[in-house]
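pinning this so it doesn't scroll away 📌
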Amino acid sequence: MELFETDVVTKDLRKPLADRMRPQRLEEFVGQGHLLGQGKLLQVLLEKKDIPSMVFWGPPGVGKTSLGWLIGKHLSLPFVSLSAVMVGVREVKEIIQKAKLKKIILFVDEFHRFNKLQQDTFLPHVENGNIILIGATTENPSFEIISPLLSRMRVLTLNPLTDEDVLKILKRALAEDLELTRPEPRLEDGVLPELAGLSSGDARTALNLLEVSYKMAVQKNRMHPVIDGETLLEAYQKKIMTYDKKGEMHYDLISALHKSLRGSDPDASLYWLARMLESGEDPLFIARRLVRFASEDVGNADPQALQLAIAAMQSFNFIGPPEGYLAIAQACIYLALAEKSNAVYTAYSAVTADVRSLPEYEVPLHIRNAPTSLMKDLGYSKGYLYPHDYNDAMVKQDYMPEALKGRRYYRPTERGYEKKLKDFLEKARRIQQS
């Protein structure tokens, strides 16, 4: 891209509809009322023409690039748009050097793709105001942008567009775009709202889908094209869901699955499971999480949960996708409906805290191993009482180091099989305390 290109938003009919319909004025920009509404942060900054370097954080298709360009136009500043996927630090330095004393808006899409050393390049120029840097990212800036740079930039969160926002954009396209009027299509009732809903708040997706639907309608009937539900679904084919297996959404969705399971909601659990599987998540990653859940949140309230989770993982390995997804789904439903207990998790957390913070106490002599006569002479295993020689295989005997006598880690609940374990534990403790 040429330096100081100011016509990045044009009506070139060779471009996709999504590019042709980029807003030309701030008044045409749709959405982000929390930033651009009367008295809101960005609106106030625009009125004062006092725009700092910023990070636009939000999902695809919500107007990050268009908003950056419109800000440059409003301020009458050259706008340079780059993508971190396509350029390196050398190109960035050349652009800043060519700018010299002329202030520019440098818009960098996919800013999180730059590593920490590359991001350091921007620091002095942002700090001395040579450039207004606008970094656009779909990833959480807290994790992806270095702290020194982040502290010098305002983070603005851009939200997914509402269906009403998308409808507004689609209607404008149908009214203004020349390509969509050669010839003008007839839209079946309800098609436009359905198209808006399929876009998941992404204007680019919505406009691309409208364009494909229009071309298919023209192909079917060049003189009187009709965009109906059948044409829309044919154009839509299968929804390609936005999903980054290493990004924030990856962690958000697995968190949603885990919390739905913990909340004993099988329907929500299945929904989040399907969202991940259909988006291309590694099924074995999910299966491992289910195994973890079986111990962490079900535990001994239902010991079979762990067995079923392991079996689901083995079944998927044996069958593979997509049939193997059913085994994972089966385990998911079972875990959601199993009795819950985090007693194993809390017990292990408590004992590891002691192991890490307390001295390494010696093993009491009577429960040490004594494979040699020398060890026996030293008292190893002396006085050990063999439980099977006593009623119920229980006998009063200490097993803890002296300093930890009476310490309790495992506290079983009254739920499921764990209630039976609790009864047994109380019986064993009564004998120990007799």
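📌 and the second one:
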Amino acid sequence: MIVVTGGAGFIGSNLVAALAERGETRIVVSDVLDHPAKKASLDKHPVMELVAPGGLGRWLEKHGAEIDTIFHMGATSATTITDMEHLLDNNLGTSLDLWRWCSRNRRRLIYASSAATYGDGRAGFDDDNDPAALARLRPLNRYGLSKQMFDIAAIMLAHDGYKPAQWVGLKFFNVYGPNEQHKGGQRSVAVQLYEQICAGGSARLFRSHNPDYGDGGQLRDFIWVGDCVDVMLWLYDTPSVNGIFNCGTGKARSFLDLAHACFTAMDRRPKIEYIDTPENIRANYQYFTEARMTRLREAGYGRDFTPLETGVATYIRKYLATNDPRR
């Protein structure tokens, strides 16, 4: 049996779909269906059981002998959340509970960390598994801090020998793709640009307030959600791999590149407007992110990552333009 927390969410629902497509029938999802899009994603790929997050601990104790792997994708993921007590309870406390359960019962745990742990990138984007290196990172928001705290706890517990049968943390970079409609303002820039172009014919990008970057020249490591799923499935098939790994493409692309990819996919001529970066985020705005993918490659992952233009074209033409955001 496979448990996917957050299995009706963005990355989690794409993982559930991929597991179902490869023939897995004993999939259990732990999530709250608080948005019609989340319910729709599960309706397309019915699962064995839906467990409320608050009852997951009791459910695990009852069904523990049947479980092989927990994919922990559930979290409070909004980078604007400032309630640290909530984040510590939901992102750190719940993750530690699952770690303890998997460690006691010798089950596997693959969990979602985040590139938000890297902050402004001054300390680099190297997924070093040394606790001191992790502690040197300075996240720019409390969400990133909560993820960093669990990464450090996981590394230290694993070093002490208290660990699941397999454990992997994935630092997801800028993920885009189907099933993200419930995320509101936290949706990928790809879908937001698509909606802007549909509504008014132009795309709006932030003006640069850094002399090292031109307008629209801010860089991100954009990764197609299907590539994230492929990495997780490879890890599931390769139980000897353990540790924290980046999950990006290893190639930063500009927001201008992303906008042009959207226009091309929509068969429209580019029309771009530049607006000031809001003052409330300007001081902590990231101008560059790029995953260093050496560790994952050295661990044996060999698949190519989807080029930005290909991923955006697939997203727009197969899902957004057909009004079918579900995988």
